[in-house]
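Bumping with the actual sequence this time:
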Amino acid sequence: MNKLSVLGVVLASSIVVVGCGSSSSSSSSAAGGASTGAPTKTTSSTSPSTTATGGSAPGALSAEAQSAATGDIPDSQVFLVLNNAHGGYSLKYPEGWTIQGSGSDKLTISDRNNLVRVVVARGPAPSPASVGAALIAVKSSSPTLTFTAPQKFALPASSGAVKAVYTTESAPNPVTGKRVKLVVDRYVLQGSGGRVATVDLGTPAGVDNVDAYRMMIQSFTWR
């Protein structure tokens, strides 16, 4: 083999090595879990513990007009404990509900039009004025939104939390023309390191989830 041929082989080998070294992979994890035995179980997310920085306030929850009718959460409902390492918190939720966004700063837990959403970001401590201003800003993209004046609300996870109640209406059902009105309790809680969680718990008007939702928000714990 002459010198030019040897040089060509060496160069080709170098290109292959560089190409292999530039590949990347990604992974994702979901929080869920089977329930057997005790009424409260623990599930967890294995994603890194970080939170979003900046950004606007979370938008408003809205029901789906074509969703099947939603009933009350039964008194016999089993609850699991979700540990979201990425957001840095834990929360009880009803077994069997669908979890989306586990391991991220925006997580939703739902059963038809029973909707729960947790958004974690960094920001200043909430106040009734700041929460009200955020809801006014959201109204531009959710014109059916109405809300009560936000008030300070003490929770186990934050003595300086703020609560507001807002309502939205879904788009009309294409068959019946009816809209679904969603009543949402919004809680804004400050954690350590500038973290702020916005927890929305929504239920269709006429459905009574007061006790279950109270237990869920009181179970919220910063990690």
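The tokens above came from a reply further down the thread. DSSP finds three helices and 13 strands in the chain.
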